[in-house]
Specification:
Two copies of one chain form a homodimer. Chain A is mainly alpha-helical and about 120 residues long. The first copy, chain A, has six helices and two strands, in the order H-H-H-H-E-E-H-H. In chain A, strands 1-2 form a two-stranded antiparallel sheet. In chain A, a hairpin with an 8-residue loop joins strand 1 and strand 2. The C terminus of chain A is likely disordered. At the A-B interface, helix 1, helix 2 and helix 5 of A face helix 1, helix 2, helix 5, helix 6 and helix 7 of B. The structure holds a DNA duplex (30 and 30 nucleotides).
DNA sequence: CAGTTAGCTAACCAATCGGTTAGATAGTGG
DNA sequence: CCACTATCTAACCGATTGGTTAGCTAACTG
């Protein structure tokens, strides 16, 4: 059973090395060697991480001479972001986020629906 | 090396079963048996998932007779949410391509500090 | 051309993950 | 006390993960 896109995205960014790579790519394209520089692991290890990121659609690769520059593709993050956001009314404790406020207004307005 | 909290949170919610459990807990507390009901896996498998969620601080457990009710603890999600949010500017527009273009123009224009 | 550089694949390894079954533990209720 | 219910632990298993080294391909460079 192949995993859904949200699972793919979340497990890709669950690794700190891969998160650091994505953060680095916010500054713009980078080659594999450039991406590998800050880490103490081998280039093939970075290649594997890049493959995971590419498999999740979080980066795309170009071609420039013998370089294969990586570019950030943030679109899949949106779905993961939206999933987590559903829980925003449960942190901060007191429903003081806009979402929670709106929900309370709605349920106060309609016929006494839920608790 | 123990993983940081964000990695812990993200890998906990990278699993669809665990995400479904958290969604269920938005409706309120539930026992292990109740949480296990929608799934085709054994109770011990669910126990393991709950242990992962508890280890990430995403649920807390109570005690009520022989029941060990689970309660949603959404606070750790906020950090993960905040991390992803940093990328929001890259997913709504085609801003990232413009950004990359601008950067390439800049580095072509400025001192060739590359590679 | 030969040599160097960038990147990839293959094979291997230990550790972790996600599930199982079997059995232990603890609380409830006749 | 006995039986039942709910939950957890232990031991095991196959698949996946995250890393390694060795060796390959492709493109630039002198």
């Amino acid at each position: 059973m192949q995993p859904d896109q949200v699972s793919l995205t979340l497990s890709a960014i669950a690794d700190p090395t891969r998160r650091a790579i994505l953060v680095r790519l916010m500054d713009g394209e980078a080659s594999v060697k450039e991406l590998a520089a800050p880490f103490e692991m081998s280039i093939p290890a970075i290649c594997k991480h890049l493959k995971v990121l590419e498999g999740a659609g979080l980066i795309s690769r170009g071609r420039n001479a013998q370089l294969r520059p990586c570019r950030l593709e943030a679109a899949p993050l949106r779905e993961a972001f939206d999933w987590i956001e559903e829980f925003s009314k449960f942190w901060d404790g007191s429903l003081n986020r806009l979402d929670g406020l709106l929900e309370r207004l709605q349920s106060a307005d309609g016929s006494g629906k839920k608790n």
